[in-house]
Amino acid sequence: MTKKLSASAINKAHKALDNKKKITVLGEYEVNISLTFKDSDIDKVIFDYLTMFEEAGRNNKIDDEFILGSGALLHTLILGAFTDVPMIPKERDIAKYLEVANVFYNTGIMNAVIEALPERELKKVSDKLDANSKKIGQMIGEYALSSAMAQGENNEDQSQEHEGIRTDNQG
């Protein structure tokens, strides 16, 4: 026999998602990690990640360095949502995120914490990201195309200058 759903049952189920575990990083520092990732937190990670890509695309900042750092960006967003690791920027500033990510990678904090997070929970993030990855792929493709076109235009302008062709519409 089933019971009627109540507010207390919902609150109890929600509270059950708050289980955490303490791990040690750098041999002596304690970090709390989530053992269960809430769907709302996963959605925020994906939203922030996609938003940073979109902002970078709008501002023509998708370059090789950004693409190289995109994995670090995602890992830093994951640390911000599912751990109490300090230094994670509050605002969506790509440069700050990448700077912090480099510090975490270089000190070994990133790998230690990511490896300690439950694989099944990281898979939830990965699956949700895969569902949204078409948009990211499109933005990277657009960057590659615009970069190639800009390079081609630059080469064309230089070849016209060498041939003595004026492109400034002055007689």
Detailed description of the structure:
67% of the residues lie in helices and 7% in strands. The chain has 171 residues and is mainly alpha-helical. The protein has a two-stranded antiparallel sheet with strand order 1-2. The protein is globular, with a radius of gyration of 23 Å. Mean pLDDT is 82; it is low at 165-171.
Chain-wise SSE layout:
Blueprint: H1 7-15, E1 20-25, E2 29-34, H2 39-58, H3 64-82, H4 94-107, H5 109-116, H6 119-162
Outline of the structure:
The chain has 171 residues and is mainly alpha-helical. It has helices spanning 7-15, 39-58, 64-82, 94-107, 109-116, 119-162, and strands at 20-25, 29-34.
Oligomeric state:
single chain
**Spans of 5+ residues with little confidence (pLDDT < 50)?**
165-171
- What strand order characterises the main sheet? 1-2
Q: Report the β-strand fraction as a percent range.
A: 5-15%
User: What is the general shape?
Assistant: globular
Helix content: 55-70%
